[in-house]
Hints:
Blueprint: H1 10-38, H2 47-67, E1 70-75, E2 81-87, E3 94-100, E4 108-117, E5 120-126, E6 132-140, E7 143-151
Antiparallel strand pairs: 1-2, 2-5, 3-4, 3-6, 4-5, 6-7
Amino acid sequence: MMRQTSNLTGKHMAAIFVGGFAVVIAVNLTMATMAVESFHGTVVDNSYVASQHYNGWLKQAAASKALGWQAVPHRRASDGRVVVETIAVPAGASITGTAERPLGAREATPLTFSPAGKARWVSDQPLAPGRWQLRMAIRAEGKAWAGESALP
């Protein structure tokens, strides 16, 4: 038996070369498309101006922590409303919040909460299904607390 050998010609090398570049270009285009479609905008409009407020934000966070107030939100399965369970928050407090989508197109829903008894507060409207990031503000007795939590 005679064994047939194949010769690697210039046409074969050109095909390998073009095929390799085609794979690299396809992967780059796919990754660029995914990056552009998942980017929902800037975190801050001007990072220099935001940096000037950074120490103030740290001071506000320390003041919130020093109050000892805690707020644990969860979404009620029956109607989609957000329930916030609070610890050490004075009676007569007011709670407001903004729910934002952490990924994809920016969607923000402002929420206000009404007391529901036993240190519980219920949102005025339901949230659509999906993941949300909830930023809350509690005001009572001339003091302010701010915090945020993920809602799966």
